[in-house]
Amino acid sequence: MPDIAALNAHFGIPDAIHFTSGPNETAIIEIRHPHATGRVALRGAQILEWVPQGEEPVLWLSPCAQYASGKAIRGGIPICWPWFGAHPEEPTFPAHGFARTHLWIVEHTDTDNCGVSVRLRLLHDETTEALWPHACSLTLSLRIGSRLELALSTRNMGAEAITISEALHAYFRVTDIATARVQGLEGAVYVDKTDQERSKRQAGAIVFEAETDRIYTGVNGECRIDDPGYGRRIRIEKSGSGSTIVWNPGKDKTASLSDMPADGYRQMVCVESGNADRDAVRLLPGDTHTLSVAYTVERIA
Hints:
By secondary structure, this protein is mostly beta strands. It is 6% helix and 43% strand. A hairpin with a 2-residue loop joins strand 2 and strand 3. The N and C termini lie far apart (46 Å). The relative contact order is 0.16. The model has no long low-confidence stretch (mean pLDDT 97).
């Protein structure tokens, strides 16, 4: 457990950043700003909440989320790194890597008229070395204001090339998955994880009628979540990302998830920005790769 008093002494900012102990002694950064509020867990560097001024919460967090050590928190924006999905060679290794379950440390905090900024770095130890025996640095720079901006940077500090796959696994809150639509991926090719990983092409907007698990590859443009129930559109702009992953577990799969209520799938959709499958990133010694995403909310009729 990080020293909460020391964190507040070194990185706390009156009326902007306060460190506290959350469920199961999880260290939480509480952020307050005239433009937005937010919460970030130091384990996983996971954004749990972002609420722009005058808006409903933009991110979905399961009321059944588990905060146990080594367990991913269901909801918010988990970080999948240094591999996305199952490990390509070691099936016993944790799905989506270890960044989302391991402790991160605070490097810098700041605030200005536009928002609150925090920089975090993944803490490497014997556990991470056993899973990923490569010399590299991983940092997350985040800015919470009327926009939510994230930049995940990987630097290869070793003598050999490495290959990573990654994603910012964002869970977005919607009023009802039956009326939500994802726009901006029309015509894109995707791998359908619910249909023997067949390759398909998207026709029209994405609608949700059953379990959806798709990796759209070779896409780097903006996409949008239209939610008529909340009367809003969530814009997702990204760079350094070739993949967009869209996921909703549907009714049947949700029943097998102990950290999600039976009807939880109806109020969320994951639209993830990353580099997965054929978009995996190869880094030569000394290279740095940055995956950046910005989320904004706007009113729709």
